[in-house]
Amino acid sequence: MTIIKSQQFMYCALNCIIIGLSVISFASPALGQVPQSSYPGKSPIRIVAPFAPGGSLDYMARLMAKILDDSLGHTVLVENRPGAGGSTGSAAVAKAEPDGHTFLYGAVSTHAIAPHLRRLPYDALRDFTPITVVASVPLILVVHPSVPVYSVRDLLRLAKAQPGKLNFGSAGVGSIAHLTTAFFMHATGIKMIHVPYKGAGQFLVEIAGGQIDLVFGTPPSAVSLVRSGRLRAIAVSSAQRSPALPKVPTITESGVPGFEVTLWWALYAPARLPQDILTRVNGIIVEGLRRPDVRENLKTQGVDPIGNPPDEAAAYARAEWDKWSKVVAATGIKLD
Questions:
Q1: C-alpha span between 166 and 173 (Å, rounded)
Q2: Is the model's pLDDT at 131 over the cut of 60?
Q3: How much is the pLDDT for 13?
Q4: For 37, 77, 180, 236, which has the most beta carbons within 10 A of its beta carbon?
Q5: CATH level 2 (architecture), domain 140-236
Q6: From residue 310, how far is each of 116, 132, 271, 286, 290 by CA, in Å?
Q7: Terminal Cα-to-Cα distance of the chain (whole angstroms)
């Protein structure tokens, strides 16, 4: 019930952002407004969300749609095309015309992790034009209160003293929680048992009930469980501490130098998007993400808004691709 309420709270908060954008766009000049051109014409714009409705990616995609809609004065639709771990929707965008009417709300899973785990119907680096990295969230290393661990150092001591005794949950083989934990074990030289589930909600329910020892969870559900006392947070995976849990140290601070993992989302178009459309859409999204109320609402949910130029977005995605290539190779994880 706590998990469901926390997810509903995030969705309500994101919906409030969208409603606020509507009110302000009615009373003030459009966000990121630039001189008029033939774009976008008469055809509707669609943002493909490659996962099922209701998750954080879906709601963030709808926030992007609202920002574009308000600025362009044009219909922007979100189309959910789940399947094959996000590759179905991603492939559809890769094959679309690069005319500024089809975008993908992609993620680290679709563009940095999946390419190293399975054969995909698209090339994550060549078949897309990065518009901007929209936002990121850290993963939160949490343990059940029955586990006698209060810090990363405690965890390493216990795991090394009793190798293979502790277990960890994830949303399935190859998920970001699985790979992050495998990366953590590789970096620290410990061994734990993997317990895969069919989704993040399921493994959070299990750890809250004491069926598993630890997980790398994501806001807002993990944060809600920590605040209620049902889980104990011992570290966050990002380079900086999370505003949602400012007293919880990073893994690097805790003695594992260079460890950094974030769940990030980016807006993409098909490859060869015209430069004028790229510049315009990037400007609109970046301006929208700079709004104080948007930033504050996202940060209270543990989401870090980014909004960078296209060249920086491309460099970031490439660096993440390279990083996860090394992680997958080092850990030996492959999907059947």
A1: 18
A2: yes
A3: 52
A4: 236
A5: 3-Layer(aba) Sandwich (3.40)
A6: 24, 5, 13, 10, 16
A7: 34
Model confidence at 6: pLDDT above 80: no
SS3 content of the chain, % helix, strand, coil (to 5): 45, 20, 40
Is-same-fold flag (2-137+263-331; 140-236)? yes
183 pLDDT exceeds 90?
yes
Could you please state the CATH topology (level 3) that the domain comprising 2-137+263-331 is classified under.
D-Maltodextrin-Binding Protein; domain 2 (3.40.190)
Look at residues 20, 13, 29, 242 and name the one whose alpha carbon lies nearest to residue 137. 242
Do residues 254 and 40 make contact, with C-beta atoms less than 8 angstroms apart?
no
DSSP-assigned letter for residue 336? -
For the CA atoms of 247, 186, 259, 174, what is the dihedral angle to 10 degrees?
-90
Token pair recorded at residue 2 = 């706590």
**238 close to 262: Cβ distance less than 8 angstroms:** yes
pLDDT value of residue 174: 83
Which two structure tokens, joined as six digits, stand for 156? 């390493």
Cβ proximity of 270 and 97 under 8 Å: yes
Contact present, 328 and 176 (Cβ < 8 Å): no
Question: Taking the domains of the chain in order of start, what are their residue ranges?
Answer: 2-137+263-331, 140-236
C-alpha–C-alpha distance, residues 42 and 202, integer Å: 43
